[in-house]
Inverse folding.
């Protein structure tokens, strides 16, 4: 069977899936539409796509998969435009991090026999096609949310396809997906942003909290640096779930306050012991919805050229540094210098390299 894959939207996620397909299935035909003509030109120039469609037209006929990879709000609108290109062998999917809206629209349009929602739990602070890469979805969970009427054969085919792209497929009901991501992804982003705003609003006049807040505080609130527009859309699309989860979390905070108020020694110990044990049991191996920070900490003597020497060692070994800086608040940190990288491979290489040069390195 001739395999043709269609992409509506070729940004970070769409581009990365397309690149993974090109890597593992070099003979597949890829057709793409994107509002950004430069993206299509670049993808054509890189021989990633065979056809750059300037509209959603007959180029999308006879596709075995059509991926909707535009922003969540646009994907539901594009459903109507691809409706005419559905055939019995086609799987229609999306990559959005909220599923209920699109599933409801699919049901209303009578597309349930073709649609399996998809959510690759991968991403980057950098967006757009230029930052896409085949390995983005490698070892990342890839959630599939089948419609009620989609044949099991299609679910099996999609599972096997994601596995072939080196992702880890997980099949969930779309409502369960939205509740889970609401708790482990959407809630933490709201907490991080609220916590940062709380510090900003209660800081001293000379901003002493801001000055002392590096280290641990910056780590637990790192995700507050994410795109405001994206998180605004996610909260609007998953509003009911998030509201319920926030209510439960506020009740959990209230219970923590009461434990402090009562000076409940055992209760306080259990709060920290239970959370430590559960956190330590969370697997490291695969990517979840919140991107991990890849950082190395090392001790350096505070002297002129100390950071420059390390930067030179790393640069001469083609390791790209995302961020580098002295950690002044080291109450909960080991290492004077924190060096952050774009991926785990670079982070591990840097740790090995610096140890060879006799630096004392701490990896988290």
């Amino acid at each position: 069977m001739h395999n043709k894959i269609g992409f509506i939207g070729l940004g970070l996620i769409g581009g990365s899936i397309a690149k993974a397909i090109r890597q593992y299935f070099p003979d597949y035909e890829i057709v793409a539409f994107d509002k950004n003509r430069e993206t299509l030109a670049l993808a054509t120039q890189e021989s990633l796509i065979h056809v750059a469609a300037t509209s959603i037209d007959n180029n999308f006929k006879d596709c075995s998969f059509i991926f909707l990879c535009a922003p969540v709000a646009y994907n539901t609108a594009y459903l109507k435009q691809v409706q005419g290109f559905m055939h019995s062998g086609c799987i229609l999917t999306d990559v959005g991090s909220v599923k209920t809206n699109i599933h409801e629209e699919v049901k209303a349009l009578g597309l349930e026999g073709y649609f399996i929602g998809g959510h690759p739990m991968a991403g980057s602070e950098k967006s757009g096609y230029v930052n896409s890469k085949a390995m983005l979805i490698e070892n990342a969970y890839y959630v599939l949310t089948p419609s009620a009427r989609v044949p099991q054969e299609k679910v099996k085919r999609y599972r096997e396809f994601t596995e072939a792209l080196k992702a880890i497929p997980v099949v969930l009901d779309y409502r369960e997906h939205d509740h889970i991501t609401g708790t482990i992804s959407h809630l933490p982003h709201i907490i991080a942003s609220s916590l940062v705003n709380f510090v900003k609003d209660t800081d001293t006049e000379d901003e002493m909290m801001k000055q002392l807040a590096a280290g641990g505080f910056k780590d637990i609130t790192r995700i507050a640096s994410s795109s405001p527009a994206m998180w605004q859309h996610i909260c609007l699309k998953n509003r009911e779930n998030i509201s319920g989860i926030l209510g439960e979390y506020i009740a959990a905070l209230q219970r923590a306050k009461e434990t402090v108020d009562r000076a409940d020694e055992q209760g306080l110990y259990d709060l920290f012991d239970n959370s430590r044990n559960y956190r330590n049991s969370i697997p490291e191996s695969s990517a979840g919805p919140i991107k991990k920070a890849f950082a190395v900490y090392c001790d350096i003597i505070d002297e002129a050229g100390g950071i420059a020497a390390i930067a030179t060692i790393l640069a001469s070994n083609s390791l790209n540094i995302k961020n580098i800086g002295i950690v002044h608040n080291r109450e909960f940190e080991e290492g004077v210098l924190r060096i952050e990288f774009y991926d785990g491979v670079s982070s591990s290489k840097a740790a090995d390299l610096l140890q060879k040069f006799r630096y004392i390195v701490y990896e988290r």
Q: What stands out?
A: The first helix runs from residue 12 to 24.
